[in-house]
Amino acid sequence: MEHGDGTGVDAGALGKLPSGVALSWGIVKQSRRGPKGELSIKKIVDAAIEIADRDGLAAVSMSRVAQSLGFTTMSLYRYITSKDDLLTLMQDAVCDIPIPPEEAGKPWREEMKEYVWACVGVFRDHSWYGDISIKSVPLTPGNLQVVDWMLRIMRDFPLNDFEKMSFLLLISSYSRACGLIMRDVIRAEKEGISHEAFSGVGFGDALKQLVTRERFPDLYPILMSGAYTDEADNPINNDLEFGLERILDGIEHYLQQKQSAASK
């Protein structure tokens, strides 16, 4: 057996991959059993995603997915042997997002912003995605394609591999945090909670009676200004975009320090 780059493949190493990951790479041969081969891993995963998008992750079960496709639960197990594997494949599928082509001369800050908001979009469009706990570094092809995108942006940075991976973690973590906030805003709106209530508008007067300068010396002036409950004009506009710009400022400063040290 050979790898795509012509090198030999260590079957023993591949055998150590979790079964769901192996399925995502097509390492496990798909079953041909079943009614006329009408089922496929993709059909099963697409059906599960549709259920999760509509009714939440708790609604996803092998039996529910099978029922939506018009097959028995045992038919699904010929293709995907556990719900955990199904969740892995669902995660990988929604990470298969469009990657913008390389553009010569495009500012790296703009590219990183595109990366962040594309990642946020996964959490926004698939609210269940953040409900699945992280169990390892990304291992599936869809997820790794997104990782590769971020590393492409940093290709010519004067950084070692560990520095690049640390920045990848930093930017991806911020993307996840922003994505979860947007997800929760959308969930709150579906539950009938207004955007104003979510951001604290209207609760300022009550909090001003409860929050004292003595007990909350640093929160108190922020609350009194109206900034905490979003009841004052915000000069920085979008808080999430502002935070991202400050992270990018930090990365830019670090790069300048590295370049300065290298030129000495």
From TrEMBL:
SUPFAM superfamilies the UniProt entry points to: Homeodomain-like (SSF46689), Tetracyclin repressor-like, C-terminal domain (SSF48498)
GO biological process per UniProt: negative regulation of DNA-templated transcription
Residue ranges for the DNA-binding region feature of this UniProt entry: 61-80
Keyword Acetylation: no
UniProtKB keywords: DNA-binding, Transcription, Transcription regulation
Domain HTH tetR-type per the UniProt entry, residue ranges: 38-98
GO MF term list: DNA-binding transcription factor activity; transcription cis-regulatory region binding
InterPro entries given in the database record: Homeodomain-like_sf, HTH-type_TetR-like_transc_reg, HTH_TetR, Repressor_TetR_C, Tet_transcr_reg_TetR-rel_C_sf
UniProt name for this protein: Transcriptional regulator, TetR family
Annotated source species: Paenibacillus curdlanolyticus YK9
